[in-house]
Amino acid sequence: MSNKIIPYRSDLKELARALRKGQTEAEKLLWEAIRRKKLGVEFHRQIPLLDFIVDFYCHELGLAIEVDGSVHDTQFLEDAERSAKIEQYGVKILRFTNDQVFKDINSVIAAIKLEIEERS
After folding, report:
1. Which of 7, 49, 75, 116 sits a CA distance of 20 to 30 A from 82?
2. Quick one: DSSP state of residue 42?
3. Residue 2 CB: number of other CB atoms within 10 A?
4. Domains of the chain (ranges plus CATH)?
5. Which stretches make up the DUF559 domain (predicted)?
6. What is the pLDDT of residues 36-63, one digit of tens each?
């Protein structure tokens, strides 16, 4: 997928900036593992797509990564609807829980690497 432009609401840019400044501990941990092309592709933090903001996004591959806290335990339908809308643009969304990132970061990174290989 070649850097396809996905529309987004311009008012989300300011919120995305604020979210970058206030990353969760799980997001910080994962960011350290994927930033600066450590996995061979460039990821960006808190990127607006459509009416949403994804935690991490690789424009080159159309790959989004979400790190979900406990609030997502009760909003499965909302998350599924959100993912479906974004995926209509050819974006693949990988979801991990905070616990997965904290307890088994190596498996999280392995899953991301596998998706990068498949999309490259």
Report:
1. 116
2. -
3. 7
4. 12-119 (3.40.960.10)
5. 11-116
6. 999 999 999 999 999 999 999 999 999 9
